[in-house]
């Protein structure tokens, strides 16, 4: 089943995010393997990068810790392969464009596809400049995912939806990743606008950390993406499993 078809299935689903290599790759492998078997729709795996523009403090710190621990793109792809081998939920890589260029775009796309990865999110390629990289990714059989924000004009939403094949990532707050006490005041209007421009699934992310916030997205989004709240659990030395189960029950 394609990533898009999976996310279009029954109601709101959950996509947890892990930073690969935080606190080390063995933990990412172990936690990722467990999480894909909890009923999540997909898992987003971040590749750490030294200049992460859109990352808030929690994800930035996790990325720095991963880099300090010697995490490489090769290592991330190996862990992605181990998680994908569970055959329980698709693995989506989230990476800035520089690590992809450093690795070589063709090689990156081929190795990710070989690892069993389903799709790639590259947040810092403006959709207007995305044609080459998107072609390389889709040629390897991977899905592309582009982001739209509350500030995106209609034509940008259309362009992002046209360039995406897996789902459209709807950033539900203005700014960087990280837990917020409240969702965007017009999150439902924003999601409705994106949905009016595409048949692809629409996933909401940025600032979603609680079961209550997840439940507010029911019937408005196809998936909720939760990053910082999960990274926080790992920072506190806790298994993120219980939080993920709580968030999952809010999807129903
Ligand atoms: O951490 P949050 O607020 O729950 O947001 C998800 C997010 O962390 C994850 O999707 C992500 C991490 N880094 C990114 C950079 C750009 C876009 C998305 C991301």
UniProtKB/TrEMBL annotation:
The active site is at 44 (proton acceptor), 55 (proton acceptor). It catalyses: (1S,2R)-1-C-(indol-3-yl)glycerol 3-phosphate + L-serine = D-glyceraldehyde 3-phosphate + L-tryptophan + H2O. The keyword Lyase applies. It comes from the Bacteria. Its EC number is 4.2.1.20. Pathway: Amino-acid biosynthesis; L-tryptophan biosynthesis; L-tryptophan from chorismate: step 5/5. Gene3D superfamilies: Aldolase class I. Keywords: Amino-acid biosynthesis, Aromatic amino acid biosynthesis, Lyase, Tryptophan biosynthesis. The keyword Lyase applies. It is an enzyme of class 4 (lyase). InterPro entries: Aldolase_TIM, RibuloseP-bd_barrel, Trp_synthase_alpha_AS, Trp_synthase_suA. Belongs to the TrpA family. Tetramer of two alpha and two beta chains. PANTHER family: TRYPTOPHAN SYNTHASE ALPHA CHAIN, CHLOROPLASTIC, TRYPTOPHAN SYNTHASE, ALPHA CHAIN. The alpha subunit is responsible for the aldol cleavage of indoleglycerol phosphate to indole and glyceraldehyde 3-phosphate. NCBIfam families: trpA. HAMAP family: Trp_synth_alpha. This is Tryptophan synthase alpha chain. It comes from Kibdelosporangium persicum. The lineage of its organism: Bacteria, Bacillati, Actinomycetota, Actinomycetes, Pseudonocardiales. The gene is trpA.
């Amino acid at each position: 089943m394609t990533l898009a078809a999976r996310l279009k299935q029954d109601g709101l689903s959950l996509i947890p995010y892990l930073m690969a290599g935080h606190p080390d790759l063995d933990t990412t492998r172990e936690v990722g393997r467990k999480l894909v078997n909890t009923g999540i729709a997909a898992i987003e795996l971040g590749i750490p990068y030294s200049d992460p523009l859109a990352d808030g403090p929690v994800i930035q710190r996790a990325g720095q810790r991963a880099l300090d621990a010697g995490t490489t793109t090769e290592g991330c792809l190996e862990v992605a392969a181990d998680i994908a081998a569970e055959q329980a939920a698709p693995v989506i890589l989230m990476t800035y464009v520089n690590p992809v260029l450093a690795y070589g775009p063709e090689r990156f796309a081929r190795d990710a596809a070989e690892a069993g990865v389903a799709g790639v999110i590259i947040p810092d390629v403006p959709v207007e400049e995305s044609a080459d990289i998107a072609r390389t990714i889709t040629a390897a059989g991977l899905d592309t995912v582009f982001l739209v924000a509350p500030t995106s004009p209609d034509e940008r939403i259309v362009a992002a939806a046209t360039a995406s094949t897996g789902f459209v990532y709807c950033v539900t707050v203005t700014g960087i990743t990280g837990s917020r006490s409240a969702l965007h005041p017009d999150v439902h209007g924003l999601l409705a606008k994106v949905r009016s421009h595409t048949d692809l699934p629409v996933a909401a992310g940025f600032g979603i950390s609680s079961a209550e916030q997840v439940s507010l997205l029911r019937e408005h989004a196809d998936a909720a993406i939760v990053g910082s709240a999960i990274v926080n659990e790992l920072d506190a030395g806790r298994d993120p499993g219980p939080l993920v189960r709580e968030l999952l029950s809010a999807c129903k």
